[in-house]
Amino acid sequence: MNQADQMIAILGIGTAVPENRLDQADTSQRLAQALSEHPDSMRWAKRIFKQCGVETRYTCEPNLLESAEDCRYFLHKSNHTIPSTAERMETYKRESVPLALHAARNALLDGKVDVSDITHLITVSCTGQFLPGMDAELVQRLGLAVTVNRIPLNFLGCAAGLKAVCLSRQIVSSDPLANVLIVCVELCTLHIQPSIEREALFGASFFGDGASACIVGTAEPTHNEIFQLGDIHSVLLPDSAEEMVWEVGNYGFDLYLSPNIPKLIGKFIPEQVERLISGRQKPEIWAIHPGGKGIIDTLENMFGLTEEQTRPSRAVLNNYGNMSSATILFVLNEMRQELKKRGIGPVNGLSLAFGPGLTCEMIMITYLPSVISQEHLLDEVHV
User: Fold this and answer.
1) What gap in Å lies between CA 330 and CA 212, rounded to an integer?
2) How far apart, in Å, are the Cα atoms of 109 and each of 15, 76, 90, 106, 287?
3) H or E stretch at 23
4) Cα(352)–Cα(338) distance, rounded to whole angstroms?
5) Distances (CA, A) of 151 to 72, 127, 221
6) What is the pLDDT of residue 136?
């Protein structure tokens, strides 16, 4: 295939979540019990848990389903010790790899790609680290070639999943025979803090655990329900470095999310989206990383999006919470299932995600029911 005819796409997607399911109402009630001696924090926590757009999410830590007095991640007066960062990293090392394998195998199966065809492996995570890393574990357990090009993207936050997709597009553009396996794993709930501070309680209200994977490569006639990848754009927003902070503490990672984030996105992102679209028609499908309900609301209002256009992002937030870098592939998978069910396509769109910095990653996408249908469409255009 000539480079001019090359169709670079997400060929397959796989997702996975832990077995432990957190019900939002139940978790809110147990947290309120833990905060009973701090009524202001208790009332604020109950309000944010109710308003954040999450009903269920998943956790790798079964202790988070225990009663308020027995949960080591909630504020308490018992003799239970708070999990240290070292203990949390041990849990991460134990629980992250099985989730990663599950998501990766699903993506390989979905994309009809053999492990022997994988040339690059990009692993993404910001909620834990260990060495030898997850990339080495995946090479051995999946049976990838020992010469596979391994690229870990660590500690880049929520935008890193889409960053990996953009990087993969560049790799395949340079080498049409390349097949990139992206695996994102985030165990966000390991970093819930036993605190009365609003920042900690806000983070505890909507983050969840999950893994997602995808294959980026050159599409062939056998591939169906794919996302063709187009132009990319990355930007670091001005005067925003302190608005989203993620630091290593003695009891897990400490997160700060400014309430100004939706406002800053509304101020700076429309111009950046316009630069990427550059005279094209307005995207029909919008794969928005649901970093929070306020972010979706802001983009919906700024671009005049319909409830149908933001439904995939809201559905993922509602059912899984924010799983950091892994979330965007959940959104694309949800969107793909919906478009397939409705029999829609080809259809053009945009995917975007935000992370610390503040940074924004964007890429133009086109959903294709089949490669053959797109080839026929191109033939009609040429005629």
Assistant:
1) 7
2) 12, 45, 30, 5, 23
3) strand 20-23
4) 19
5) 35, 17, 29
6) 97
CB 135 within 8 A of CB 333: no
Rounded to whole angstroms, the Cα distance separating 204 from 252 reads 13
Would you state the torsion angle of the CA atoms of residues 233, 378, 279, 239, taken in this order, to the nearest 10 degrees?
-10
Residue range 100-128: mean pLDDT, rounded:
97
Question: Among candidates 9, 187, 210, which has minimal Cα distance to 110?
Answer: 9
pLDDT at residue 143 tops 60: yes
Neighbours of 301 (CB within 10 A): 11
To the nearest 10 degrees (0 to 180), the angle between helices 307-320 and 327-342 is 130
- How far apart are alpha carbons 91 and 83 in whole angstroms? 10
Alpha-helical (H) ranges within 37-110 are 39-51, 85-110
CA distance 231 to 242: 29
The pTM of the whole model exceeds 0.85: yes
- Residues 6+ positions from 15 with CB-CB distance below 8 Å: 103, 106, 210, 211, 212, 213, 326, 329, 330, 333
Residue 158 is among the residues annotated as catalytic for this protein:
yes
**Is 278 exposed, middle or buried (CB count within 10 Å of its CB: 0-12, 13-18, 19+)?**
exposed
Mean pLDDT throughout 224-240? 94
CA dihedral 95, 100, 106, 108 (to 10 degrees): -150
Angle between helices 134-142 and 85-110 (to 10 degrees): 40
Catalytic residue among 71, 158, 188, 214: 158
Radius of gyration of the chain (CA): 21
Q: Are 18 and 209 in contact (CB under 8 A)?
A: yes
pLDDT digits (tens, 9 = 90+) for 316-359: 999 999 999 999 999 999 999 999 999 988 999 999 999 998 99
Count CB atoms within 10 A of the CB of residue 5.
Answer: 10
pLDDT, tens only, 206-217 = 999 999 999 999
